[in-house]
Amino acid sequence: MIAELECVVLDCPDPMELATFYQSLLGGAVNQPDRRWSLDDDWATLHAPSGLVIAFQRAADYQPPRWPDPLRPQQFHLDFGVPDLDRAHDQVLSWGATVLDEGLAGRSWRIYADPASHPFCLVRQKKRATG
């Protein structure tokens, strides 16, 4: 094991609106402070009572899925927290992932596709404060 599932991320046109919808369905806290990410107009989160975190990411030119239409498939990605981004990068490539966007130098995440082309991110875990 090299990673922990941090959240499931849904693309959408309005992150806060979708977070509020899922809060109505599941309960929990919208945009609860969390050391793993920052919040802005393009990103919202829901921390459900079960411990599940769902994130909502604004997508430019969002085209909603039309299930079961294969021309407009379901849309989401997974974020995996890793302690060592470079090491995890090498490991997922050796298992068949492909790089979609390594990002800018110093960025805390990289984007890949799994062997079936589903996108996922490796995200550098922030160190926990001790004390």
From TrEMBL:
Ranges of residues in domain VOC: 4-125
Domain of life of the source: Bacteria
Transmembrane segments: none
Alphabetical list of SUPFAM superfamilies matching this protein: Glyoxalase/Bleomycin resistance protein/Dihydroxybiphenyl dioxygenase (SSF54593)
Record's protein name: Glyoxalase
